[in-house]
Structures are given as C-alpha cells and as structure tokens.
Amino acid sequence: MTTSRLNKLQTVDTQTLKQLLKQQAITLIDVREPAEYAGEHIPGATLISLSKFDPRKVPQDQDTKVILYCRSGNRSTMAAQKLFDAGFTTVTHLEGGISAWKQAGYATTINKNAPISLMRQVQIVAGSLVLTSTLLGAFVSPWFLILSGFMGAGLMFSGITDSCMLGMLLAKLPYNQRSSV
C-alpha cells in the first residue's frame, strides 16, 4: 500500500484487495456509472456513482476500510477528494481500477443483459457523427466538415484529460441509470 500526493489517498493493488475481500475487512465502493456497474463489477462492491456521489452514503465504520474503484483510477481519485472534503481522514482506492483487477485474472460479476458499456456508446455516437458529417461534407456542403473537426478535437481533449464530456452526457440517459437489469 502506498500514499499518493492527494491528501492521504492510499492505493491498494489487486492482490491486496483480493485478500481484504476474503477477510471481509473492507467496504468496496464502485464509483462508475450504474450501466457500467450493471454490466460488470467486482463481487461484493456497492455502487455509489461519481455523478451522484454523496459522502453521507459511504459507511464510516472504524473497523472497516473504505476502498473505491472505477475503470482506471481517475474517477475514484475524484470521489476520494469528495470524501476528504467531507472530513474523511484516510481513503483508499484500487490502483488501476477494475481494468487491473481483470488483468490480474480475478473474477467479476458480469450481466450479459446490461446496456453496452459507456465507452462503446461513445465510440458509436462519435463515429456516427464523424461519418455522417464527412459524407455530408463531401456530397452536400463542405461546412458539415466542421462537425468532424469538432468531434476530433473533442476526442483529442478527452484523451489528454482522461475525461469524456460525451460519456458523461450519455451516462445521464435513462437506460444508463439502471444498476441492474
């Protein structure tokens, strides 16, 4: 376990998390959006999505440690900051998120009937807009190419900042708000 520069945010690796889950000594919180949680999550995790994250919903038991996780660790870091702002003195998150958990070969709970992942939804919407605007730009008016350029700039900004405005907008759609299907 290591401490990062963000207050007292501690990180835990997948192997340590696996051991802590076996000992039932932690409260594991998934901060991804409900559709992501419904599709796949670490067994034993509770959903408190970052978009509706309320520190009052997080148990403050002295005997159990709170561990947050998301897809890669970015959103769990943001959720940890909210806990620090609410007065939590130590918060831990899973280094590398559920991606690292799966890479380590540990089991997840998968629901095949859940909505497709937000990342795939973003790819479908962004790709459709780029294709449509390119075709319209080639056959109707070159002004439609502005939309392709805008989408390209948005995807580049998303990659640089590791945040996705389109993904956040898609996460607010009703079918993405269900945590179980």
Can you tag this structure with a few keywords?
181 residues; Oxidized Rhodanese, domain 1; 2 domains; alpha/beta; thiosulfate-cyanide sulfurtransferase activity
The overall number of domains is 2
The CATH homologous superfamily of the largest domain corresponds to Rhodanese-like domain
Strand arrangement, major sheet: 1-2-7-6-3-5
- Secondary-structure class: alpha/beta
Q: Give the DSSP E fraction (strand runs of 2 or more residues).
A: 5-15%
Shape: elongated
CATH architecture classification name of the largest domain: 3-Layer(aba) Sandwich
Task: Specify Rg, calculated over alpha carbons.
Answer: 19 Å
- Helix content estimate: 40-55%
State the assembly state of the protein chains: single chain
Number of helices: 7
Q: Spell the H/E element sequence.
A: EEHEHEEEHEHEHHH
Remind me, CATH topology of the largest domain? Oxidized Rhodanese, domain 1
Number of strands: 8
Q: Sheet bearing the most strands, described? A: 6 strands, mixed
Domain Rhodanese: 22-110
Protein name: Rhodanese-like domain-containing protein
Organism: Nostoc edaphicum CCNP1411
Keywords: Membrane, Transmembrane, Transmembrane helix
